[in-house]
Design brief:
InterPro entries: Aminotrans_3, Aminotrans_3_PPA_site, PyrdxlP-dep_Trfase, PyrdxlP-dep_Trfase_major, PyrdxlP-dep_Trfase_small. This is Aspartate aminotransferase family protein. Keywords: Aminotransferase, Coiled coil, Pyridoxal phosphate, Transferase. One of its GO terms (molecular function) is transaminase activity. It holds the Pfam family Aminotran_3. This protein has helices at about 40, 50-65, 75-85, 100-120, 140-145, 150, 185-195, 225-235, 285-295, 310-325, 325-350, 380-390, 420-445, and strands at about 20, 25-30, 35, 95-100, 125-130, 165, 200-205, 235-240, 265-270, 280-285, 350-360, 360-365, 395, 400, 410-415. The protein is of the alpha/beta class. It has two domains: about 20-50 and about 325-445, Aspartate Aminotransferase, domain 1 (Alpha-Beta Complex), CATH 3.90.1150.10; about 50-325, Type I PLP-dependent aspartate aminotransferase-like (Major domain) (Aspartate Aminotransferase, domain 2, 3-Layer(aba) Sandwich), CATH 3.40.640. It contains 13 helices and 15 strands. The radius of gyration is 22 Å and the shape is globular. It has a seven-stranded mixed beta sheet with strand order 4-10-9-8-7-5-6, sandwiched between helices. A four-stranded mixed beta sheet has the order 1-2-3-13. A four-stranded antiparallel beta sheet has the order 11-12-15-14. About 35% of the residues lie in helices and about 15% in strands. β1 (about 20) and β2 form a beta hairpin. Bound molecules: 4'-deoxy-4'-aminopyridoxal-5'-phosphate (PMP). The site of 4'-deoxy-4'-aminopyridoxal-5'-phosphate has 16 residues, from α4. 4'-deoxy-4'-aminopyridoxal-5'-phosphate binds near residues 105 and 136.
Length: about 450
């Protein structure tokens, strides 16, 4: 083979070439099938190769694919903005379209800062995030991310934004238990605000369910209500990063709907286009836009491809599909079925320390000792060993942080929301085999 040209995630790793996808399966050029139990990067929410989306794509392409947003608007972009506002918690949102989740969170940050500037509050320009969080790979998004591994190389270039405790009950940062903790993790936000001064803080950002930085970590009941109440009391905007949770993934169209909280800004990505095109959005509540409408009347953000009609038409078709096929309902019922099955296999495999998640955003956390919740040393690379083993068997699962910043080794199981019971059974069987084989190897290694 000649020299390579495409930069892949791991440069010396041999990646199979995928030929096509259908439903929850991908097929490589050797004809091997992969059950996509991670929806790629928790993206392909409606499954692969859906004809309705291909039709919508062709139809829009036959009209016009691109117009520049400084010159024209388009019907698909207008319709998509309205539909998202209708679906989002409490309604009354504006939409700003971008191309990736990172841009969506970074744009949310910029709009939050601009909101305060328009009100003459020039000092409010820090964003608080949480340890064990991931909001994206661009510099602004990374500045707000508590993901040690992804930040490490760029630390000198990042804003030194404050971070507060994660709402991680399995390993409570305050060594409390959920029944009696009175939400100390939410209070940690108030402590930070008092230390830094609300006059310096524009926004607080959090994922409704933590994804890549911890593995489907669901907060304790009431956490986000308390967070929102603290944000309002100190005049701090609340940004919900719904890039992974948005569009039915957790069993509601938006993850925040489980919490009964209306965020001031929402970042969407991944499931919004379900992988059919690069598309993401920042939703902004009316009251956040109000001073901008009265002031400079323009948002200082955006990209060449923002709000292009092709991506908007595709995302609109994805939303229609999700609503027509009641995929939020499927995420709830199939999520409950899959969670119960994962709990069953966990009973018999000692290295599974925790099984958790919401809807079809689920995760398993691995431990050396279940009683003490001892993490594996990072050098053991447990997360990647399990992922590789599953991959060999034709099962795709997604890595969470993996013992890098207070999080243990974990994998995310998040198949397309169209998965059937029979496909869940197949998924669980393959996953159980993969985990058992790694667990057996570990036993042999420790004995040898
Ligand atoms: N926020 C969250 C919660 C995410 O999970 C991700 C992607 N894993 C991002 C932001 C960044 O999205 P993208 O990779 O599309 O830039």
């Amino acid at each position: 083979m000649g020299r390579e040209h495409l930069i892949k995630p791991v440069l010396d790793h041999p990646y199979p070439t995928i030929q096509y996808g259908k439903g929850v399966f991908l097929y490589d050029e050797q004809g091997k099938a992969y059950l996509d139990a991670s929806s790629g990067a928790v993206t392909a929410g409606i499954g692969h190769g859906v004809q309705d989306i291909i039709d919508a794509m062709m139809e829009q392409a036959s009209k016009v694919s691109f117009v520049y947003r400084s010159q024209f608007t388009s019907e698909p972009a207008e319709k998509l903005a309205k539909k998202l506002s209708d679906l989002a918690p409490g309604g009354d949102y504006w939409a700003f379209f971008v191309n990736s989740g990172s841009e969506a969170t970074e744009t949310a940050m910029k709009i939050a800062i601009q909101h305060w500037q328009e009100k003459g509050r020039l000092g409010k320009n820090k964003v608080i995030s949480r340890r064990m969080s991931y909001h994206g790979i661009t510099m602004g998004a990374l500045s707000m991310s508590g993901h040690v591994l992804r930040r490490r190389r760029f630390i000198p270039l990042l804003e030194d934004f404050p971070v507060v405790a994660p709402a991680y009950c399995y390993r409570c940062p305050f060594k409390m238990n959920a029944a009696s903790c009175k939400l100390a993790c939410a209070d940690d936000l108030e402590t930070a605000i008092k230390r830094i001064g609300a006059e310096h803080i524009a926004a607080f950002i959090a994922e409704p369910v933590v994804g890549a930085a911890g593995g489907a970590i669901v907060p304790p009941a009431g956490y986000f209500k308390k967070i929102k109440e603290i944000c309002e009391r100190y005049e701090i905007l609340f940004i919900a990063d719904e890039v992974m949770t948005g569009i039915a993934r957790t069993g509601e169209m938006f993850g925040m709907q489980h919490e009964g909280v209306e965020p001031d800004l929402i970042a969407l990505g991944k499931g919004l286009s379900a992988g059919y095109t690069p598309m993401a959005a920042t939703l902004v509540k009316d009251h956040v836009m109000a001073p901008i409408l009265q002031g400079s009347k323009s948002i200082m953000a955006g990209h060449t491809y923002s709000a292009n009609p092709q991506s908007a038409a595709i995302s609109l078709a994805v939303l229609d599909y999700a609503l027509k096929h009641q995929l939020a309902q499927s995420a709830r019922s199939m999520g409950a079925y899959l969670l119960a099955k994962l709990r069953q296999i966990a009973d018999g495999i000692e290295i599974i320390g925790d099984v958790r998640g919401r809807g079809l955003l689920l995760a398993l956390e691995f431990v050396q000792d279940r009683d003490y919740k001892t993490m594996f040393p990072p050098v053991e690379g447990i997360t990647s060993r399990i992922i590789d083993k599953a991959f060999q068997k034709g099962l795709l699962v997604y890595p969470a942080a993996g013992a890098v910043d207070g999080a243990g080794d974990a994998i995310i199981v998040a198949p397309p929301l169209v998965i059937t019971e029979a496909e869940v059974d197949q998924l669980v069987q393959l996953l159980e085999e993969a985990i058992r084989e790694v667990a057996d190897e570990l036993t042999r290694e420790s004995e040898g």
